[in-house]
């Protein structure tokens, strides 16, 4: 008989409760009896110990009466059945509740028998046995208590069983009702009703199970909805894939990797291949339509696709007899069961292949044209490095394409055109121009130079950034040579290769513009060979031409690079001199010097047709500055001056302006006399005293004087510039420094003069002479002069160039104790920039400022500035050109403490200077002006 789940719960629950209650009753009663017996035993033991202690005196004294009294007291307890005291020989001495004849057998400890508990305990005194106590206790009270407890437990157990049965019925009803709800929910899910939900009315396990059921049902419903949507989407995708494969001439298939039989095919095989899918399903059927030359590649690709995807192109015979180009993209797949399959996508690439073949053919034709074209075709990346070159590059430069790729254009450009090439590339690569052209020179592998014309255009990306450049390079060397030849023929003389009349006109125009801009002078020298016609007529034109070439070569070696030597024709030559002195007279002197040099170099004989012949020039000169005259007017003036030279006897130089010529002649005469005076030691030195604020002489400046035999005293302002220009200032200055050192050496032994200093002006040309420092050091050593008493006065013009050399010379001379003063300070323009670097001891206020210092505020301000600057730099300051007390007082008020000028003495002889010093010493030094 099949019991339902409710009865199974009730019967099972009652059976379990009965077993549990019975076990609990039996265990409880047994435990109570055991506990009571243990309590009685413990009580008997305690009583035995107490009684033994009380009986010890009676046994010790063998007093039966005392023992009997104690036992009777014990017998008052209703639970005591008997009590006996035995002596050491186990003889009864006292007893209650039992006769001596019925004394139980002696035993140790406690003994339990039915209905009673017997305790036997030995009594000792000082370790000596006295006797034994035996007491028997009744267990009737315990047994009665156990019976009562059993009766109560039985009643309690029956009550518990009844309650348990009621609880089991109620529990089964509740459980089975919830189980029915779960069973109904399960059947609903089984029936496909995923929207069914179980009511949740509790928070126990059944409530959790109901909630879990509802969550599962909801998830299953959501999953079903998702699956339905995915199935719909999959159906749409399949339809779309079918449509795409058909439109794209493609077939998607899956095949058995062993037999290559199609297991799945998607796509219109009939339209693509000419056959329905079932006609091509087996691998051997498809293989029959593959081109025999391509079949091995297809089979190899199918095998190799097992390790990684493979792509293979092959020809396939269409049903209409045409060959199609197909591309298979192959790969292997493994499903969840481990079954392998070969998957493929077959594409019709016939059109693409034909286009590729046509493009390759076009590329080959293009490459053939590019490889054989004479122009260099190139491409660069965004950084300007070549990424493509045709073979014409190697033919042009000798560098192979391989070693050139990756390098920039500038690596192959001649140094002269580096800047142009860099600008060309930068403009193009920085987007400054979409296209650019340039003509530059390339240096070939052999070191030759080739002219090329480059045209390039830039390609931009979507952000307007240059991504590459493309261009061509054409060899224009032959054209450049032709242009140079045309230019040479147009602008150069064919015989001497000098500039001709046309180029001369251009160069002279440039010189006129240069003089207008710089305010300097230029000069034109017109040169005509004397008696050239005689040589040409007697020795022939060939010899005459040879003479002209030799003359041109000699003159070309004598002019500066900035100047121009040209041939006008015949025996006429012209020289343009640039950047002459802004002063007309000095410019004329420079031009005269060049003319005289030409006369000198043409003085030596020429070798002509085995003969030695002399040729002299007649040179006409004219100066120009600005655009007051035209090119033709200047040439005409020089031509007229040349005829003046011929009329003057030839082999000479004449200026177009007679007055200028006389001035030049006077200058050259002065130079000649200056050389003579130097040879004859016609120079003398004078001394102008330098004083302090008290008027005491502290030193002197040595000034050079020249007394001409016929002209008398010649001003230094006249002959010093000539000495500077001719270089005579070097030997003249050497003599002055020698005289100064000799005088200082003589003074150092004379107490009256040994503290004096001597100042010597040194010109820029003299100071920069390569032996100046060496010569002065040797002079100091030879004379024994004290170097610290020698002061060299330098001019500001010395700082206009090579200031580093000046500083080096000063530092070297200071090691000998020599001091330096900056003369004419304030008249130049550059000294302030270098003043703090110069190791000076003194600044000198120029007399041009002192002269009008009382009347001109500007001069006064300059004087004040010089004094302040000297004090700031911790330098001494001296004013020259002081002529009256008012000037001295004003300068003293500014802070100037040293003076030089006519107020204190004119330049005079050494004897006068020494006499002045001696007079001051005798008078005790005059007081300073207030």
Q: What structural class do you assign from the helix and strand content?
A: alpha+beta
CATH topology of the largest domain: TIM Barrel
Largest sheet report: 8 strands, mixed, barrel
Across the major sheet, the strand order is 23-24-26-27-28-29-30-31
**Rg measurement, Å:** 70 Å
| Relevant CATH superfamily of the largest domain | EAL domain
Number of helices: 28
Strand runs, count = 31
User: How much of the polypeptide forms β-strand, as a percent range?
Assistant: 15-25%
What's the structural domain tally?
5
Query: Helix amount, in percent?
Result: 40-55%
Level-2 CATH architecture of the largest domain: Alpha-Beta Barrel
Mean pLDDT: 84
Protein name: cyclic-guanylate-specific phosphodiesterase
Cofactor: Mg(2+)
Pfam families: EAL, GGDEF, HAMP, PAS, PAS_3
Domain GGDEF: 520-658
Task: Give structural notes.
With 930 residues, the chain is an alpha+beta fold. The chain has five domains: 5-154, Beta-Lactamase (2-Layer Sandwich); 248-355, Beta-Lactamase, CATH 3.30.450; 373-481, PAS domain (Beta-Lactamase); 492-673, Reverse transcriptase/Diguanylate cyclase domain (Alpha-Beta Plaits); 685-922, EAL domain (TIM Barrel). Helices cover 48% and strands 23% of the residues. The protein contains 28 helices and 31 strands. It has an eight-stranded mixed barrel, surrounded by four helices. Strands 2-1-5-4-3 form a five-stranded antiparallel β-sheet. The chain has a five-stranded antiparallel β-sheet with strand order 7-6-10-9-8, sandwiched between helices. Strand 1 and strand 2 form a beta hairpin. Helix 1 (5-60) packs antiparallel against helix 2 (64-75) and helix 18 packs across helix 19. The longest helix is centred in the N-terminal third of the chain and has 56 residues, at 5-60.
